[in-house]
């Protein structure tokens, strides 16, 4: 009996170690995927100079990544049901690695674009796949902690991206950005090859080619329209055509999915009220967060005279706090549920957002950095807990669809939030009053973000905590 008990204990320890290793491999893949998205923004002026590009052409290096990402995410539920976990992860990371290597040696814009497309195709699969694996590998009473670690990566990678990129391109050629992340990707692929096991069930759904085409035009068109609206204006021909095609294709896509027995993306998951509620709440918070992440650097560099490196440093404390707090809020979610975490978090978000609506030429670096830090703390209290709460309501066979839908809606919210707040900032500016007039536009954009946050606060009161304590007691015996 003693020997049997000892063997069981060793088996449990091995299982825990195996889960930790799997978590590290998945988080590493997500980290480089997200970091890659944020590195290029600061480096664009250097790339434009080296490859003799104008701003509108160079911007496609960012736009194409988001577009391909937005196209790939909705089809991941189909891919997860068609291929093994290990095979799909290695393929996605392989595509990402090849794309990164091509970008590192690209002699011209065309080759660089091909590299970015391959990177985006891999990254678009990695994020929803990773969330699906986390939900299938970890028991329900540990999912908050696992998603908290996932949130740490989501927060920290984009935080250090612009600052790190700004420093590197000042010291080394822009190709160094890709050479820097390539070894991490290769090591991650090697480790995943040996330790990653299949945890998803292959149901081999029928491939509906029309659905793939409609999804690509629908989500791609809307994302491109929203992303260019901030710079081109909402009434521009380019935005109108893109969003019209996107809207028509998306409506057709949704109607088709509701008729198919094996849809590419399962829209019936919105029948689960808690999933619908938490997805909407996550979108609201993401709009407020991503919009500020774009507006604040513009404010600091174009209006207050700070450098790109300094504007990156101002966002760093907030991102570090958000990253460090995500595992804590994940653990609190496992213990107490999402309701009060989200209510308190959104209350802080509303207050700090409206405090950002009173900026002036005298606003200091310390004020921006401190207020943004509290703002990111509030986001950490809401984002991962509500995502986890919503996905917990779905049966295991619908989790891949839930993670794909969640990531898709977040992409859309990010594009909408950026376009909306940048447009409000531009139209709210008073050109005759110089810098103060430009800052007025920023203040108006934060008032809009504050109102959006207030809507989120109202939604949070409708969240219901499941009988999680009962689940924990059963799991713990």
TrEMBL record:
It comes from the Bacteria. The keyword Ribosomal protein does not apply. It is a multi-pass membrane protein. It comes from Virgibacillus alimentarius. Keywords: Cell membrane, Membrane, Transmembrane, Transmembrane helix, Transport. InterPro entries: EmrB-like (IPR004638), MFS (IPR011701), MFS_dom (IPR020846), MFS_trans_sf (IPR036259). This is EmrB/QacA subfamily drug resistance transporter. It is found in: Cell membrane. The chain crosses the membrane at residues 20-40, 60-81, 88-111, 117-138, 150-170, 176-195, 207-226, 238-254, 275-300, 306-328, 340-359, 365-391, 412-430, 442-463. Residues 22-468 form the Major facilitator superfamily (MFS) profile domain.
